[in-house]
User: Which sequence fits this backbone?
């Protein structure tokens, strides 16, 4: 007997839809007209373009501040037309390809049901916004402005997904075992083909951006090009190091994974080769996400939607191009292995999972914290099973992963890294500001002054981190708190980071750009978040009616998993518009932003002029250079850093090592401190030792040669 869902009257559904749209539009008007909030989203020229397109106007005050005037009614009409067009389009698709009979009334009723949470969220946010000034708490207003883009992304995602994923009774029910194998295989292959095409497109876009950043001398050597110098130095007998390091690189991190590229580097000794592989690794993460979501939801369409959201996830984009334009991190090589380790563990392929986890441990020691936590989560999941269904092997294996990972990270931080630093503590201990400058200091602070730790953990900044990291999945990961708990320890550690060495009170401020997720520290958290989101797509609804085609098998997914995965994808898309530096973000298209395509991704003269200079310097030379020039010298005999930072290669003294043959100074980069020859200390203090070579770069670079 077929169970059909009653379809309310069309007028009732439309009224409920109008109420939800009106509330969302009211939130949009407040957000776009708020100068402090809009300035956090994107540059002024992008804000002007959006406000104008939505029917508003932008005026400039005497102070130079832009004031937006977005009226409610023009915006309401635009959004209503967009939603109505989406419902009509969805109705036509259902009628033509799935034989749906409910049409517009059924879709409108579904959309109205799904938008009730969005209506409540909008009304609650508006109430807090207007009553916050009466409470005399400016920090609350600051939090609302800072998180406004994430909230708007969620509301818009729910609004349009409610219409796009609507299903009538003929299409409800999960992808059950009654589906013919051939039909299900066709659906999976179609979704996988779409996904791989999107992943290749993302990878090519990523590599194009990285390639142009490198060509334009916008890639820093430290934490980017130095990894290619590691490979070059290893197979040229100079040790696992760059000349930025105080010694062997193991004194910085237990980070060996990029050495796996040595065979490829022997064939293609290039920094860009490593960039290409890095982008490919990030794109490849869609495969385990697809596999895990398909296993939990039983629907290839749901798996496709959630996997596509990875490609629009702006915290992932900052792993590829960080806010300081560091474009290469070995964490990118380890992410797919961490993903596959979780995926293979779920299907009990424990030997393969162990290999993936072990290689992922070579990414960096902080990966061990997440891997160990994942092991304990799998142990808990196995203990939750009925006693008769538990696997003794799975219990032992999960416990071993957790315990060995804890031993790994403790040995790395307390023994191995200090051994390569002559007994000094790990360098990133200073990231925690006044909480302590060593693991022992941090532990002492936690025991003697726990209130200082709690003050930072329960701050607005920590809440902001939670929102920014989980909004690209539409907050779907929160439905599986046990899976999400695998990232708890790492998240607590990230919440304590104070890169500016500020005090606990100052760390609560949301001013400035926080380190998460705009740098690379959050990398091992992302597999946990998407694992939890994939597990949250599991549906208990089943249908015994086999679909007649592969297309209908895609539509037979339960409406709740499909709505959840669709909301996650649209939320990732909408949150990337103000949050990402990629073409999916508005900043990329800005004509005025320093991160816009005109400033970063168009060829400039600096790179070409430097190539001409380097042709005159033999690769057997030892060259000191300013950063960004440094990235082109990784294949020279030695490549020294020319800056105010004291290095071990010069006995922690200012200046350059005594064996330096050349000095190359970039005079036009935004971080350059030397603009003219008169500013060069060596020419002023050691004129008998250095000569300034003739300028062939129109003042872009100063080249000094030691007199022999």
Assistant:
């Amino acid at each position: 007997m077929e169970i059909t869902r009653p379809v309310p009257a069309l007028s009732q559904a439309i009224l409920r839809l109008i109420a939800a749209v009106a509330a969302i539009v009211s939130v949009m008007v407040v957000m776009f007209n708020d100068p402090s909030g809009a300035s956090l989203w994107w540059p002024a020229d992008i804000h002007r373009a959006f406000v104008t397109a939505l029917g508003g106007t932008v005026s400039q005050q005497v102070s130079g501040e832009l004031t937006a005037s977005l009226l409610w009614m023009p915006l309401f009409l635009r959004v209503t037309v967009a939603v109505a067009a989406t419902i009509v389009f969805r109705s036509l698709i259902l009628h033509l390809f799935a034989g749906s009979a409910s049409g517009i009334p059924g879709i409108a009723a579904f959309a109205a049901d799904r938008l009730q949470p969005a209506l409540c969220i909008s009304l609650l946010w508006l109430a807090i916004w207007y009553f916050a000034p009466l409470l005399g708490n400016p920090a609350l207003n600051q939090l609302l402005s800072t998180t406004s883009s994430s909230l708007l992304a969620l509301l818009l995602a729910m609004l349009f997904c409610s219409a796009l994923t609507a299903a009538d009774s003929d299409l409800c029910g999960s992808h059950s075992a009654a589906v013919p194998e051939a039909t299900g295989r066709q659906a999976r292959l179609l979704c996988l083909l779409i996904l791989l095409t999107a992943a290749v497109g993302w990878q090519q876009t990523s590599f194009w951006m990285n390639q142009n950043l490198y060509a334009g001398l916008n890639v820093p050597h430290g934490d980017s090009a130095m990894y290619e110098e590691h490979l070059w130095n290893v197979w040229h007998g100079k040790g696992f190091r760059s000349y930025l390091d105080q010694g062997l690189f193991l004194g910085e991190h237990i980070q060996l994974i990029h050495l796996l590229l040595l065979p490829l580097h022997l064939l293609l000794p290039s920094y860009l080769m490593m960039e290409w592989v890095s982008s490919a690794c990030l794109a490849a993460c869609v495969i385990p996400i697809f596999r895990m979501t398909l296993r939990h939801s039983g629907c290839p369409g749901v798996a496709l939607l959630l996997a596509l959201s990875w490609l629009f996830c702006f915290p992932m984009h900052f792993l590829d191009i960080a806010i300081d334009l560091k474009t290469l991190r070995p964490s990118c090589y380890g992410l797919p292995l961490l993903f596959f380790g979780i995926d293979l563990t779920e299907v009990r392929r424990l030997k393969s999972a162990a290999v993936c986890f072990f290689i992922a441990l070579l990414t960096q020691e902080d990966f061990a914290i997440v891997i160990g936590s994942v092991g304990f989560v799998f142990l808990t999941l196995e203990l939750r099973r009925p006693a008769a269904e538990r696997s003794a092997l799975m219990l032992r294996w999960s416990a071993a992963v957790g315990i060995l990972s804890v031993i790994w990270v403790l040995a790395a931080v307390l023994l191995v890294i200090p051994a390569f630093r002559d007994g000094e503590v790990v360098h990133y201990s200073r990231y925690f500001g006044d909480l302590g400058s060593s693991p022992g200091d941090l532990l002492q602070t936690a025991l003697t002054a726990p209130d200082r730790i709690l003050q930072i953990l329960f701050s607005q900044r920590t809440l902001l981190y939670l929102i920014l990291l989980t909004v690209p999945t539409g907050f779907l990961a929160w439905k599986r708190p046990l899976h999400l708990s695998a990232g708890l320890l790492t998240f607590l550690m990230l919440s304590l980071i104070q890169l500016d060495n500020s005090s606990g009170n100052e760390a609560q401020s949301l001013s400035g750009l926080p380190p998460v997720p705009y740098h690379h520290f959050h990398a091992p958290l992302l597999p946990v978040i998407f694992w939890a989101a994939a597990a949250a797509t599991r549906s208990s609804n089943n249908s015994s009616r086999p679909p007649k085609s592969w297309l209908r098998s895609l539509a037979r997914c339960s409406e709740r998993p499909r709505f959840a995965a669709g909301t996650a994808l649209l939320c990732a898309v909408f949150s990337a518009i103000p949050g990402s530096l990629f073409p999916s973000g508005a900043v990329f298209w800005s004509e005025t932003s320093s991160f816009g395509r005109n400033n970063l991704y168009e060829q400039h003269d600096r790179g070409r002029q430097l190539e001409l200079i380097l042709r005159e310097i033999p690769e057997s030379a030892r060259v000191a250079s300013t950063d960004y020039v440094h990235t082109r010298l990784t294949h020279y005999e030695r490549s020294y850093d020319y800056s105010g930072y004291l290095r071990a290669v010069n006995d922690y003294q200012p200046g350059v090592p005594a064996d330096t043959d050349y000095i190359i100074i970039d005079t036009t980069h935004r971080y350059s401190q030397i603009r003219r020859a008169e500013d060069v200390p060596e020419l002023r203090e050691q004129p008998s030792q250095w000569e300034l070579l003739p300028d062939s770069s129109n003042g872009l670079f100063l080249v000094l040669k030691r007199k022999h």
About this structure: The longest strand covers residues 701-706. The CA atoms of residues 231 and 260 lie 10 Å apart.
